[in-house]
Design brief:
single chain; 137 residues; alpha+beta; seven-stranded mixed β-sheet; elongated
C-alpha cells in the first residue's frame, strides 16, 4: 500500500471514531481551521497530524518487507478556565479508538498522553495523545 493509503486509513479512523463520534472540530495536516475565527463561540477542538519516524527492512530476498513506524498525534484544546473534564473525555475517546487495534494493515500500539498546559497565546489548555503505529510494505 502507498503512503497516501496508510495516511488515509489513519485519518479515517480518527474521523470516524473520534471527530464524528464526539462532534469535535478538527484541523488536519495542511488545512485551514475556519472554525477558530468564530471567537464568540469558543469550543473544544483538535489538531490531528501524522509523523513518520524510522523504517527498517524486515525480510530479504524475493519478498522483501519493510516496516515503517510513526506517531499519530492528536492535540486536544479546551478554553482556559473551563476545567478539563470534557478534554479528558476526548482524550479517552482517542485512546480507545487506537489502543492495540489493527486497521487495513496499520498496527497501533499503546497511546499515551502528554499534558502541554496553557498555550503560548493564553487562550487554550492543551493535552496531546500520541498513538504509535507501524505498517509493513
Amino acid at each position: 500500500m502507498t503512503l497516501r493509503a496508510k495516511h488515509n486509513t489513519i485519518r479515517s479512523r480518527f474521523k470516524t471514531e473520534v471527530a464524528d463520534a464526539r462532534s469535535l472540530s478538527t484541523v488536519y495536516d495542511n488545512s485551514r481551521p475556519s472554525f477558530l475565527s468564530d471567537v464568540t463561540q469558543p469550543h473544544d477542538w483538535a489538531r490531528f497530524t501524522i509523523l513518520h519516524s524510522e523504517a527498517s527492512q524486515k525480510e530479504i530476498g524475493e519478498n522483501m518487507t519493510f516496516r515503517y513506524a510513526g506517531i499519530a498525534v492528536t492535540q486536544l484544546f479546551t478554553v482556559i478556565d473551563k476545567g478539563d473534564n470534557d478534554l479528558l473525555l476526548n482524550a479517552d475517546t482517542v485512546v480507545t479508538a487506537f489502543r492495540g487495534v489493527q486497521v487495513s494493515g496499520v498496527r497501533f500500539g499503546i497511546p499515551y498522553a502528554t499534558t502541554v498546559g496553557r498555550t503560548p497565546d493564553g487562550k487554550w489548555w492543551q493535552v496531546n495523545i500520541n498513538c504509535p503505529f507501524t505498517f509493513d510494505e
